[in-house]
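In response to a reviewer's request, we include the raw inputs and outputs for one of the modeled complexes. The two entities were modeled together in a single run.
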Amino acid sequence: MKLLLINGSPKVKNSNTAILLKAFERPLKNKASIKPQTISLAKRPSDEEILEAIHLNDTIIIGFPLYNNSMPSSVLKLLNSMMIHKHDLKNKKIGFLVQYGFVEGIHGQAVEEWLRYWVKESGGHYMGSIIKGGCDGLSKLKKIKMSHPTIKGMTEIALYFSKHHTFDPNLLADYAAPMTQKKKNRKLMKCIIKLMNHFYWKKLMRANGVSEVASFARPYDT
Amino acid sequence: MNILILDSGLKETLIPIIGELNTKQHEVTIIDLKEQQIKDCIGCYDCWLKTPGICCIQDDMPKILQAYVKADVVVLASPVKMGFITAELKSMIDRLIPLNHPYLRLNDDRMGHVRRYEKMPKRLMLLDDAQNSKFIKRIFAPLFEQANHLLYTSDKREVIIREITID
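The model returned the following structure tokens for the whole complex.
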């Protein structure tokens, strides 16, 4: 298998998508039969570089952060360009990684349906989409342990992939869970959200000298 | 009403709609997104954590944000391409993040972000292909807060006008 991993995050550094793709790649490195190549859209590769990489590989996984319930515009442009050259996608295996901060799996569901449709239109084979919430803070961790649930889950998906050359739908479903918040957890979730806002977002603001009050600025109010 | 139309390719199809809105004494501004310089969001979080509400990229987007916040209604107009909106419109939508605050909130059964501005315009999408728009509806419906947010150029003109101008 010739595997191409495309990181569709616009971030040059501190990319959560990069961390997840690396976690996916790690168990594959020992398999001589799988040679992963990685391209990062943040490094602004030329169209020629991207198209050549697609041409040379038979399995493509595109990872991206969720922007407005879907892929960032840079990834949309990539997909539009790939579709123009769809002869190079025929029978190739294509899968995706969709990651974001919100914890529920449902946020990735709508775009997953479109990605499935897009691959079908391209003539490629859809492997599935790895959907994972709760990924906002990954790049902020000092050390990312293999035992971290997000990394552990990705490793399992990668190990299955290395054997079967596709994604296990059961592993994907477990990894994306919980799909939504249950009513009975409402009070608890509101507490957790308060803590996240205080210990994560407020902390980041303060590090930039922005107070909570200042963070609510409305510069375009007339 | 102050109506902002952000068009990424419907062009001539919009002329009769704009004409009728003008005769009804609405203030209509139309911005052709293909003529604007709108760079892609770089995910720097400046608009949330450094210069709250303000994007660090200097292009045509700040003036669009200003018009967006001032408007009573915003119409996002786009042809449907391979079941999705144009990249130009998606770039613009991605650059609307300064209108949100980073703080999380619980919206019914899932997380969302807190609003920055008290009053936001009613948002509608105007597309040219009703048949192939189901993915657009599924993806963008949660971001729009009212029903009937999707309009089609094949709809009767009075329906389009009514949906845009109804309170």
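As requested, we also summarize the result in words. Chain B has a mean pLDDT of 94. Residues 16 and 157 of chain B are 8 Å apart (CA to CA).
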